[in-house]
Amino acid sequence: xxxxxxxxxxxxxxxxxxxxxxxxxxxxxxxxxxxxxxxxxxxxxxxxxxxxxxxxxxxxxxxxxxxxxxxxxxxxxxxxxxxxxxxxxxxxxxxxxxxxxxxxxxxxxxxxxxxxxxxxxxxxxxxxxxxxxxxxxxxxxxxxxxxxxxxxxxxxxxxxxxxxxxxxxxxxxxxxxxxxxxxxxxxxxxxxxxxxxxxxxxxxxxxxxxxxxxxxxxxxxxxxxxxxxxxxxxxxxxxxxxxxxxxxxxxxxxxxxxxxxxxxxxxxxxxxxxxxxxxxxxxxxxxxxxxxxxxxxxxxxxxxxxxxxxxxxxxxxxxxxxxxxxxxxxxxxxxxxxxxxxxxxxxxxxxxxxxxxxxxxxxxxxxxxxxxxxxxxxxxxxxxxxxxxxxxxxxxxxxxxxxxxxxxxxxxxxxxxxxxxxxxxxxxxxxxxxxxxxxxxxxxxxxxxxxxxxxxxxxxxxxxxxxxxxxxxxxxxxxxxxxxxxxxxxxxxxxxxxxxxxxxxxxxxxxxxxxxxxxxxxxxxxxxxxxxxxxxxxxxxxxxxxxxxxxxxxxxxxxxxxxxxxxxxxxxxxxxxxxxxxxxxxxxxxxxxxxxxxxxxxxxxxxxxxxxxxxxxxxxxxxxxxxxxxxxxxxxxxxxxxxxxxxxxxxxxxxxxxxxxxxxxxxxxxxxxxxxxxxxxxxxxxxxxxxxxxxxxxxxxxxxxxxxxxxxxxxxxxxxxxxxxxxxxxxxxxxxxxxxxxxxxxxxxxxxxxxxxxxxxxxxxxxxxxxxxxxxxxxxxxxxxxxxxxxxxxxxxxxxxxxxxxxxxxxxxxxxxxxxxxxxxxxxxxxxxxxxxxxxxxxxxxxxxxxxxxxxxxxxxxxxxxxxxxxxxxxxxxxxxxxxxxxxxxxxxxxxxxxxxxxxxxxxxxxxxxxxxxxxxxxxxxxxxxxxxxxxxxxxxxxxxxxxxxxxxxxxxxxxxxxxxxxxxxxxxxxxxxxxxxxxxxxxx
Length: 989
What we know:
Strand order of the largest sheet: 1-7-6-5-4-3-2
Low-confidence stretches: none
Number of strands: 21
Structural class: alpha/beta
Number of domains: 6
CATH class of the largest domain: Alpha Beta
Distance between the termini: 89 Å
Largest sheet: 7 strands, mixed
CATH architecture of the largest domain: Alpha-Beta Barrel
Number of helices: 39
CATH topology of the largest domain: TIM Barrel
């Protein structure tokens, strides 16, 4: 047998540059008889067996481990012999992930495993190097006694290993009748990759030093024979070791957990729940009952025939848990909203029949795949739902999913540059040139940097956790697949999502959505005044809501708050729920090209539908195919496909495979001919389907997310102050967004007040139709300190500045007090800021009690400009002392306008200051700049073209200026251009 041990792949993150498929391919080309993988964890296990089978080479699964032994550490390569060994390596791998792996555990779980000392980092080799051969011998004897299958690893990777250790190891091994095997630490493919490997190790540990004489490149069979020519017996010994291995990975069959039911079957219980739910859903409506009943029975039969009764009951159970524990559940997501059973069980809140959603888009009886119900929960309550499911089904039956972060272009360049100690400013310039394909090939340092960075690009860098996916199984997963344990004590797969799905494991996505938390908190505020308020009872034809959307006042509204979306809202002026559904489906790359045509047709532009038979399908979207379900309807109603066949057609066409396209074309024409349609019309309609198949959006998802968007817009339109209060609390820490929301409130003449030491908490507060900033918005004061302030305040407000300092002297420092003063939080003490600053020293608190007739020494208040600067430092923006307040008389005298006047005028002159600027180069290499201007109430983005920029470059600072800007239309979009900038007379504060 020829090959070597200590082969690793790039799954040994930051220790190896060889992707696993490349390693196996080269092992085959190098005439290896086997591939023994011993990565730091078992991430690559599935790919080992998959690619080994492809290349007809024997796979051996192993793991590199290190454990504490006597006063140091010693390393082993652990290989799987049989099924028992596989179970044990899973245990060892899990213990390793928890940093709980011990020498004793290796001994305990040794059955079915082969142990090989790992060369340079084993205690035996280190003792030999230190001329302590007797101790090395005694440890060999102990390992031989402790481990049933034990070999020594013979490494020749460095001069010391080859000249000092190897001969002595051979001699000692003979004394105790131990066999030794060829060890070659394989970390990069060819010698040219050595620099990349060394850089990779330094990214992980800047102090790492590779032995100068070490060579860890891959060796083929001939090179190995030559390398171990003085120890030819290692390959005979290797025959014995490899022949011990008879483990072959066979993918287990996983089942869904069984939902516990007493006295009946899962089929009967699911049916009874669904029928009961349908009655509740239809109660008090004018909907045609028999249509719903037929659809429900059909769905139930498909669900049962596909074996998914328990799946629906499991999801129903944890959704019910959430809804009965004050956890808002999203109305639906993805194709699951097309299921009437889901709607009746309360899993979704979208009526699939009312919105013409198709069950087959979700669960296709002709395409056996796992159902995919994704659930949205408030991001602060998601973990509570997951914990409920974990407790119900067991820690070993519900796991999270690992992800692998890889080196991207930017990160690989930055990491290698850090190792090469290249200045960060130079690195930024290099990255910019790389992205613009303008690399200077004469710059040797840049060329070397990019050569090395290219070699690590795409390699795994670190692990993470899938944002939403959880795996649920009837089996104890720790017995079947390798797991890790995270810091929260939750098990995680060592395989990523695609690998787990290939094993047939059930993935459920539990998504944490900030917007649901906002909706929940707004509802709680509403219920303080109206306890009977129900979100699911709000009308979908509310005039105030559509007015808000038509005016694009959609800041903070889910899916509708981007500038691009606002532009479309202004043009579309939605007035029905269907408008929102279509907008969410169209506002994506590709379909976006049809938005203007859609709006024009909606507003009366004539259009023709390609065939009368398609009128009912395409009329709601004005002849444009927007949804995937429309494609399915066309195939079903025009060509006679079943809906299940129509879904397969849609999937096939969307792959854009020419062979599939032509095959489906013939089938479509045949089915149309059977319904007496001409070949010409059949081909025309098929071409239309092909054209829109890539653009078509999942209508089920669009309806569900449109409902969330509408709900938020409704709450904003009808409960504006409450909505904005919650929105501000959820934007804490983002100064720019907070200021934009406060500006929006001011436009509505709602006062936003500075923090108040006796009223503020850690969130924004709505009180007496005014919104008060939280203490948490003040710089230098953290959440723990805010809580201590609240606790100290309790039910007794701070009566004055002395009392405040006295009660908080052990909670806050002088810097905190300074920021509290500048923010306005202590204004209720009726002292000016300058006086409080001069008397801020908290360590003096209490001295006043011992001084008769004590009185603070008062100081003249700071000027307006200083107050403004201090306030901005404390909270990040100006709330009370806005710079433009100094210029109100000037604005009135010169009859200046505001940014808001651009709603009715195409050119304005106003006072403002620049909050942001971005300079770019045109295609001709000339400069132009984009700036954001604030007028105290509103902000606007405007452009300075090259000549204007050159004329006014010196004025682009943060000082107050007078701006002339005018409307400009670019690519049919309204933009604004700066025409002139003026300095103004100074006005003292």
